[in-house]
Design goal:
The protein is an alpha+beta fold. It has a single domain, classed as Jelly Rolls (Sandwich). It has 4 helices and 8 strands; from the N terminus they run ααββββββββαα. The longest helix has 30 residues. The protein is globular. It starts with 8 loop residues before the first helix and ends in a 9-residue tail after the last helix. It holds the Pfam family cNMP_binding. InterPro entries: cNMP-bd_dom, cNMP-bd_dom_sf, Env_Response_Regulators, RmlC-like_jellyroll. This is Crp/Fnr family transcriptional regulator.
Length: 154
């Protein structure tokens, strides 16, 4: 996936909102193979990737987890933190060494509540990412499990 297929924080948020969020960012690193989170567990943080790649996957009963999408530079990892009940809808694993900015979800939600303009900008950004990921999940699952793939059979 490339940055043009979904909005990055740089594209989606006005400079002042990006700057405010970056004041609470923490730099983190993950070795290849690290699970960042598991589907169904508490979503209490999110990341913006600086370098490396992360595979987003979905559990499929009786099968290996299906990789829905791989994300990289400047992309959001984790959106479930924004929406109650704040549990991960997918899993995530570093497919290469990753350096990222990590954000505490409680702090960001508090900032969004205190500043409605920031809240709206974050909600629209994350909403755009969610919509893209749902389309990717649908396409990927159709490719893997439907008799004719995701192509139009008509």
């Amino acid at each position: 996936m490339n940055a043009s297929s979904t909005s990055t924080m740089l594209q989606a948020l006005p400079a002042e909102h990006r700057a405010r969020l970056m004041t609470i960012a923490r730099e983190v690193s993950f070795p290849q193979g690290t699970r960042l989170f598991e589907e169904g567990r508490r979503a209490d943080r999110f990341w913006i990737i600086r370098t490396g790649t992360v595979a987003l996957d979905m559990r499929v009963p009786g099968r290996r987890a299906a990789v829905i999408e791989t994300v990289g530079h400047n992309e959001l990892v984790g959106w479930s933190w924004l929406f109650a009940p704040h549990t991960w809808h997918l899993g995530a694993e570093a497919t290469s060494p990753v350096r990222a900015y990590e954000f505490d979800a409680d702090v960001v939600r508090g900032m969004c509540q205190a500043d409605p303009a920031l809240g709206m900008a974050v909600a629209l950004w994350v909403g755009d990412v969610v919509a893209h990921r749902l389309r990717s999940a649908r396409t990927r699952l159709l490719d893997v499990y439907a008799p004719y793939g995701s192509g139009n059979s008509r």
